Protein 1
Amino acid sequence: MATTRMTVAQALVRFLDNQYISFDGVEDKFVEGIFTIFGHGIAVGLGQALDENPGGLKVFQGRNEQGMCHLALGYSKQLNRRKIIACTSSVGPGAANMVTAAATATVNNIPLLLFPSDTFASRQPDPVLQQLERPDNLSITTNDAFIPVCKYWDRILRPEHLMTAMLNAMRVLTDPAGTGAVCISLHQDVQGESYDFPDYFFEKRVHRVTRPLAVEEELEEAAAVIAGAKHPLVIVGGGVKYAQAGKVMEDFCEKFAIPFGETQAGKSACKSSHPMCLGGLGVTGTLAANVIAQKADVIIAVGTRLGDFATSSKWQFQNPDVKIVTVNNNRYHAAKMDAVTAVGDAKVTLKALAEKLTAKSYKSGYKNEITDAKAVWAAEMKKLAAYTYSDGFEPMIKNNDPRTIPQFVELTGSVLTQTAAIAAVREVIEPNDNIVTAGGSLPSCLQRMWTTDKPGGYHAEYGYSCMGYEIAGGIGVRMAQPDDEVYIFVGDASFQMMHSEIMTAMQEGIKINILVFDNCGFGCINNLQMNNGIGSLATEFRYRDENGKLLGNLIPVDYAKVAEGYGLKSYIARTVDELKAAITDAKKQDRATLIDLKVIPKTMSDGYESWWNVCAVETGGNEKVRAAHDEVKAGRAKARQY
């Protein structure tokens, strides 16, 4: 058996450089490169290997460990999980910074490969710099924090551990049903240890992503349930996008006259212009989708985890006789809500279901309900687009501090509302441009208002609702599709949480367009507070008042100047016309841009025939808190139990 003597780190780099993926007969390299922030635990071991011979791997420099992982997530998600950028950090705080990103990857089923450095396997220099000591168990380090948020976790204590660890890592990363974060913990002394690795460990490996078809019995049962439906509704989840099954889904819905609503992950899997498309569904859904969902007698959930926002905490489906059918390649997700399951790839399973429904001469019983619902929503969209500040202005969200809007208008001179801004951006940018968003109220408005016919044109991280994802994730999207402009929708609070990777975009010459929606705070959560009878508690950006409470005047921030400090071309928009002019000029730039939108608080869209199960305060509180408690209890009584 031929062997090559090399260090663990050198072997790791060589192995990663020879991993490929095959999907529908198309073969491509799986690992694009490695993102790193070098610290003492990783610079000498893995750093030496990358400096000596990175092969075809590209080395990227991150600024914040969580941020660089979000960038890698955005990159892989936009490429339908067919490529990855691995991420590595030093021991201790560098590793801990990646835990949030690992959870984000696992919740969203996006492959993310992490190599945090660890302490010394020998324990000779303990406690090493940045080491977390547990007197009750010396084998536990910071990297054990990754275990609950990863789909696969391993620790390299000896050189020969690397081989089985990496083979299992690739198994998980390339599994459509079980992918997520993978953490391979690298003890810093073991990284530099040599071993006679067998040459076959470094041979080219092609990991084939297959399309498993649901078994015949499952197909028959699912088809029988659907065939008995008069008013079915399809939920398009992220699995439809990753399976590239959008056209098949559109044909399925059109042939059988079944409307479809979209989850955050599923939006842009199908064309927004499709006659059966009702837009977003659930808590952040459109009026059209939610009204149809309430009366549906069969829900066909394809490639979705059936999260609480898509189902309105299991309240949305009000028909007492409603049945659930799921198509999902993950049996765990398929089995939710007592569903009739068809476990398999979305594309081939939908085709098989279509054949069976065709044999039954099936057609839904809808008459004018779909077109009527879409017409009502189209009228609402016009209203949202025209919404602006003027005399007699009424905020979209009624519960608010009466000082907030007048103070904001005086402070900024703005008349721009959030819904009008979104409509203006959609009007001005190109049809094939990509947009990126994450936590806060922007995904709510965008899920309702945004339209695109480009596959993957809507990129939202909402499975984990991770604020701070937007800018880094948007850079990853632009790296994945460099020919298409990227517009990043980010709230001012989320921008403050993490904008460090702007420097990475500048370093790499990657043009992104950042739209900062500045409403002086955590507007979404302020709504949640005040709608449930709580005061404005630490969610608006205010100075302390004379009583020491965070209820003083609003704090102005010039985000355009922050951007200028990084070298971006920046703009401020206080009106729709200023916003359109800024975007028009931003298109001409060859460097990253930022538009500081001064958006009047409480002008985001509100819920449409949906409900969200939140905490119900049972003791104490004011009259509004008690009323909110009663409303939550009433909603829970109407929701399905499981």
Protein 2
Amino acid sequence: MDTSRDKKLKKITRKMQTKLVILFLIIVLALVGLCGRLTYINMTNGAQYSKQILSQQQYETKTIPYQRGDIVDRNGIVLATSIKVYNLILDPKIMRSDSGKYLEPTISALCNCFGYDESEIRRIVSENSNSSYYRYEKGLTLSEIEDFLRLSEGEVKPAPLWFTNADGVAYSYHNIQGVWFEEEYQRIYPYNSLACDIIGFTNSGNVGTWGIEEYYNATLNGKDGRKYGYLNADSDIESVVQPAVDGNTIVSTIDTNIQRIVEAKIQEFQDTTGSANTAVVVMNPNNGEIYAMASYPFYNLNNPRDLSAFFTEEEIEGMTDEDKLKFYYSLWRNYCISDTYEPGSTAKIFTVAAALEENIANMNKTFVCKGKLHVGGWDINCHKKYGHNKLTLKESVAYSCNVAMMELAAQTGADTFVKYQENFGVGRLTGIDLPGEASAEGLYYKAEDMKASDLATSSFGQNYNVTMIQMVAAYSSVINGGYYYEPHVVKKIANSDGNTVKEIEPILVKQTISNVTSELLVDSLESVVTDGTGRNAAIAGYSIGGKTGTAEKALKDKENYLVSFIGFSPVENPEVLIYVIVDEPNVEKQSNSSYASGLARDILEEILPSLNVHSTLEDIEPEPEPETPSEPESTPTEESTEPQFPNPSYSEEWEEPIVQAPIEESST
């Protein structure tokens, strides 16, 4: 019986061994197959699967900020740039880790290197114990953080290298952890307020506001880079750097020297006479390049929201947010392109141009001015209320006769008059490459709506609105042979390496008048300065042409005026055009255009040599500084013995208001 049992056990054992061998072979074959399959996958799709695995690893990324492009003047002088600064970041979670061995040395280093308040640092770390990011200070320079960097990297050994806290525990500066520096760029303006109307400024995130900063924002901005850190297949730390792409540089048409002179003269005028606003544009009439553009008051581009220069502390505290926003808007907006006004007598040249082009008149055509003209049921006055008597058209320009302009416009007709207004850009955007340009659309009469009295007042620059940039563009075409160029403030765009990306070529838009008409108008505009109302703009040795303007404002109340002068030099081949606006000068009687022509003279005297415009003429004695002429209160009769115009000491001014003024001055 025992033998039978043994035989049975042996038989079972043999079967089990056989099964185990078979199972083992199956497992071996499966492993061999799996290895083969893995080898095949690795050979055919290994890279793809590696990327999938690595994509599931923990990445550490860091933004590499781009540098916003510079804004420079035409000679390469930097007007706006960006410098690298560092934000100090605290990582309270790291500082408190590993039983707090990093906390004390890190706080001690921060206080020693930066002079921070220890209790404040401890409070922040305690209140943000689970945070890995707390921005403690912004805008540190490299020199300000160098000591801390060297200390944390063990390059500097303070005395002592080890220190003991208040509890008698010793710590090493080698354990500084939980502090790092975030890089970014800070926009700065080396000349503070210089050319503020043209340059503009930036807000957080490199967002341009006003000026070139806004108009060319996308061009100035670049693209952030990235630094990626991850564990590779061998568990080693790998990093990939995608470099930042810096923004392009804007090369402007601005001449820093001319801009500085313009602003200095405006400030000098404001400090002596003053006005509600004084504005100046200087331009190359042959290609539309703006050399300078400024309006008062100026503001600091590095701190555009600083109100302390304009208000007392008590006034600032009493201002609401709405009050501040309203003031900021008026401060930052560019008067030279954004505000509209009635141009006054500077616009008479357009009336003359239309008549000459249409062969309605020539420069020898005569007019008789008796001080007023009855038009459409209204008596509309000349600025010289006892009249100029007999004048040629050229003399009418020189002495700024309103009656001659009204008669000339009546002969031209409303349709033709309006056609030339629009041809010269009235009510049209010039296309200047700055934000906020106003068009004055709707602020001038259409031919079908223009009555006889409307045509009369429009003939000498009242009852319709323009912008300064419209006037300089139009006048440039008057004096350069008739060629209307699009005004612009940028010459070129270059990349961060200085290589040219794009040249901004002058854009010739149209021809407003013929060369012959242009020559006649230039000659008559020269007579304004040599013999007429613009003598105060004369500069010894230089040939100057131009036109004065006096526009009665708003309610035509004989109190508030905008006076102006637009001039150019040299007359033989105009190289520079200047336009000066003095809005409501701070004097008892505002209607004297010599305030504007005198300021233009002071500016031209300094900028002409810098533009290599050389003195060629004999000295011309300029008109004395403005003194409002006294006139008799009684209205003279035709037999008046009052000396007849021209009068070299006379400066254009209004004596009585224009009766009808359906379109009031406004700002867009």
